TrEMBL record:
Gene Ontology biological process terms from the UniProt entry: proteolysis
Protein biosynthesis recorded as keyword: no
Chain intervals with Basic and acidic residues compositional bias: 1-19
GO molecular function ontology, one term from the record: serine-type endopeptidase activity
Protein name: prolyl oligopeptidase
Catalytic activity, EC: 3.4.21.26
Native source organism of the sequence: Nonomuraea terrae
Keywords on record: Hydrolase, Protease, Serine protease
Residues annotated as domain Peptidase S9 prolyl oligopeptidase catalytic: 476-684
Known catalytic reactions: Hydrolysis of Pro-|-Xaa >> Ala-|-Xaa in oligopeptides
PANTHER family: PROLYL ENDOPEPTIDASE
Length: 685
């Protein structure tokens, strides 16, 4: 079959000399999305993709499986509960309130706000009494999060728009008259290339101009800092945290708001300059509960007095487990013997244990529906004997489970609203060895019944930022496996499946471990007869796009097809674009000579070699992506199209009016169908 010719892409003779090392960059002109040449090249790539795409498979089945809808864990406030739900025919989830008498009302429907479907609901936070609701929306995938406040009873907006609120927590004071939040400085006050940074913590009084907001924290600190802020249920304690970009550590302060005014809180250090992550929960019993990985890579819960929150006063309540990672906890105290529910992931599989609140002694476990993922253990802020948590696994759409500590029973509280027929699959977790002998786990999802020889297989991974790959309902995975394929998800170093040490074993100077774990996963699938190199496709997005970019340049012979979505690929210049400057704590900076060597050692764009038969490759990019600029994929696509000697195509799917994160369901269906079709075509499914 003759491949269509690639669009012409000019190669420039640009070479930077960095730390006495020449670094060629022949496609730098593609960094300008508004340049006429870039626009012309993108248009030509779109025409090529339209010709090469072929009949779209999987679309109807993916759409059908997504008709399961979804449901979110409830938040309880003053007798009301708040939750999200997406019904089978909805493009976006709708946010609801349920009154004490059971009456249910929709509060925020993104499609009612904008019928085009490009507006997304980014975050919500009811006030402590459930009378006001702060919510953040963005348009076209830019994730810029404009903040509004709504009167829950009337549905009317009482505040907003307040812009520059991306990634802002909302910490309500009791009574709903004021809240703390995080906002970027105006663009007029910062250099042009730093407008995504320079956050500050402010106090805002509802009904007043943001011009009157009081900055309470952040002045003079690093421009890439992210801030967290929360207020205890009784309004006494303020907690402020700061982390440099996405660093796995934070500084932490508390203030007693009865001893200093809310607009000038006297913040006391809990930890500063410590290489650990710590968060606080002010208990209804007057104790301070500390969730930390300090001296405990897998996490632990300590207790202390809020008046003396320093490390030297911490006492272990739930010590570190040698195998499981402590993810969250909830306190149930309307019992003769109050308890703490503790959520864990043990080798990426979730469980919840029950402990005596005073001593930490384990007294039981919470029954769960199966071997899957638990999300967000929720309790009533005023206390009680019930908890709610989300549950999903590879064949179960999201459900909400209710646990009653008086009876010890777990019951289904809410299911995803759509009835779908889910295919039978066989799931197993295997352990394989990486290049250095490290044991790595991998989930393999295959058609039910006996395995019959090697099959077309997709290997997926992420391996970064401490994020864990855990079982979950996926229409794409189920559609692929139902069609006869195998889907494998590797729990690579760099993730959080085995705790913070596991994350750090795959970051900064150790990043190559992630790629080696991935190659070893592929080799294991081949060696055990699951698949062959001619039937093996790989897929990853964002940091996972970097992963598969490194995989295809380091071991092109190992893979038949690659889907590389919203990727980081030019690791020498990544800090100059999007939110890249906040990630140098994960990857390193090209400004530092040693870190430059790490980055150049694997940067996929710089390792594309002439006259190599590369796998079939599809880059998927999103024009409004403000996290990872599409230029990474554009430059890499041009480089691969120039260099590859294979008759397998290198294609670009560039999508407008969507970004890195949330999108309408119909957009998700199209993207899934296109990527599965491409992988099926080039792995023989």
């Amino acid at each position: 079959m003759t491949r269509e010719p690639y669009p012409s892409a000019r190669r420039e003779n640009i070479t930077d000399i960095l730390h006495d090392t020449p670094v060629p960059d022949p496609y730098r002109w593609l960094e300008d999305p508004d340049g006429p040449e870039t626009k012309g090249w993108l248009l030509a790539q779109a025409e090529l993709y339209a010709k090469e795409r072929g009949p779209q498979r999987f679309k109807s089945r993916v759409a059908e499986l997504l008709r399961s809808g979804s449901v979110g864990v409830p938040a309880w406030r003053g007798g009301r509960s708040f939750f999200s739900r997406r019904t089978p025919d909805q493009e976006h989830a709708v946010y609801y309130v349920v009154e004490p008498d059971g009456t249910e009302r929709a509060l925020i429907d993104p499609m009612a706000i904008d019928p085009s479907g490009v507006t997304t609901l980014d975050a919500v936070q009811p006030d402590k009494e459930g009378r006001l609701l702060a919510y953040q929306i963005s348009v076209g995938g830019d994730e810029e999060s404009v903040l509004y406040v709504m009167d829950v009873t009337t549905g009317e907006r009482v505040e907003g728009p307040i812009d520059r609120c991306r990634y802002s927590p909302i910490a309500w004071m009791p009574g709903g008259e004021a809240f703390y939040y995080v906002r970027r400085l105006p663009s007029t006050e910062v250099p042009e290339n730093e407008t995504q940074f320079h956050r500050r913590v402010y106090l805002h009084r509802v009904g007043t101009s943001t011009e009157d907001d009081v900055m309470i924290f952040g002045e003079g600190l690093k421009m890439t800092n992210y801030y967290g802020v929360s207020v205890s249920r009784d309004g006494r304690w303020l907690q402020v945290s700061a982390s440099e970009g996405t660093a796995p550590r934070n500084d932490l302060w508390v203030a007693d708001l009865t001893a200093s005014p809310i607009h000038r809180p006297e913040l006391k250090v809990v930890q500063e300059g410590v290489d650990a992550q710590t968060g606080l929960v002010f208990g209804r019993d007057g104790r301070l509960y500390v969730h930390t990985d300090r001296d405990a890579s897998r996490g632990r819960v300590c207790v202390t007095d809020p008046a003396t929150p320093g490390f030297e006063t911490w006492r272990d309540l739930i010590p570190q487990d040698p195998e499981a990672v402590l993810s969250d906890f909830a306190i149930l105290d309307d019992l003769e013997r109050p308890v703490m529910l503790v959520g864990w992931t043990r080798h990426a599989i979730s469980e919840i244990t029950v402990h005596d609140l005073e001593t930490g002694e384990r007294v039981g476990e919470v029954p769960t529906p199966g071997l899957g993922t638990i999300g967000g253990i929720s309790e009533r802020p005023e206390g009680g004997h019930e908890a709610w948590f989300g549950y999903t696994d590879n064949t179960t759409p999201p459900t909400i489970q209710r646990y009653d500590a008086r009876t010890g029973e777990t019951t289904l509280w809410a299911a995803s609203p759509g009835a779908v027929e889910v295919p039978e699959v066989r799931t197993e977790q295997v352990v394989y060895q990486s290049h250095d002998g490290t044991d790595v786990r991998m989930l393999i999802i295959a058609p039910a019944g006996e395995a019959s020889g090697p099959r077309p297989t997709i290997l997926y991974g992420y391996g970064g930022f401490g994020l864990s790959m855990t079982p979950g309902y996926s229409a794409s995975i189920l559609a692929w496996v139902e069609a006869g394929g195998v889907y494998a998800i590797a729990n690579l170093r760099g993730g959080g499946e085995e705790g913070e040490d596991w994350h750090r074993a795959g970051m900064l100077a150790n990043k190559q471990n992630v790629f080696d774990d991935f190659h070893a996963a592929a080799e294991h699938l081949i060696a055990t007869g699951v698949t062959t190199p001619q039937q093996l496709g790989i897929s990853g997005g964002s940091n996972g796009g970097l992963l598969v970019g490194a995989a295809l340049t380091q071991r092109p012979e190992l893979y038949a097809a690659v889907v590389c979505s919203a990727p980081l690929l030019d690791m020498i210049r990544y800090e100059k674009f999007g939110l890249g400057a906040t990630w140098n704590v994960e990857y390193g900076s090209a400004d530092d000579p040693e870190q430059f060597r790490w980055l150049l050692g694997y940067s996929p764009y710089h390792h594309v070699q002439e006259a190599v038969a590369y796998p079939a490759t599809l880059f998927t990019t999103f024009q409004s992506d403000t996290r990872v600029h599409p230029l990474h994929a554009w430059k890499m696509c041009a480089a691969l199209q120039h260099a590859s000697t294979a008759d397998r195509p290198v294609l670009l799917r560039n999508e407008a009016e969507v970004g890195h994160g949330a999108r309408a369901v119909s957009r998700t269906v199209d993207l899934s169908a296109d990527t599965l079709t491409f992988l099926a075509r080039h792995t023989g499914l």
